[in-house]
Amino acid sequence: MDRKRVISWLKRRSLVLTLCGGCLFAGFLLGLLIFGQPWHLRPAWGDTPGWITAGATIGLLIGAIVTARYAIKAFDAQAKELAILAEQHDRDKTERRTAQASQVFVGADRTAGTLVRPYAKNGSNFPIFDAESWESRTDDLSRAEDLGVILPGEAPFAGRSTNRDVALARTILTFRDANNVRWVRMPNGTYKVQTRDTARDSILEALGQPAPEPPAPQNPP
Question: Does the pTM of the predicted model rise above 0.90?
């Protein structure tokens, strides 16, 4: 949710509750001015003006309570509306961020009975940078094949010749989009933001494989 909107809403709600509380307190003071300290008075039916004044005071109190109740309901409804707007804003922000990455994918020729090379297709309207293709194996990851910059509409080859199903099931693509966000495109079609310092470590993390430990520093002789 937008932090500024939430703070503004809380301030307005606090102001309304303060005003309502002030109305209730003012009604109480008005009753004291009219009747004095009622707990010290003897029970009496009073006269007609007294009853009219008492009725007016009670009416003010009831009106303040009703006003406070409707104000709270109104602000609760506004809070729900703000939450919906904030959620929509987050969805729009995510869609804008992933708009280019969702149009970059790995494909392969559909010719049956032949070995094919997978390709990396940039279907977006902007170039991608630092593109690399990788081949996942049972317990290992191939070295990266540098694809460099892939312009809109281009589809350079991105791996060795193999069976089409194998090519699509094993080829991983990493790249940097036009907004300087680095992505990992997995064989199952999902794409994730690079979470590690290197593309290789990010792929291993996405595959659930442990990244190699950095070499221990050697003491100088």
Answer: no
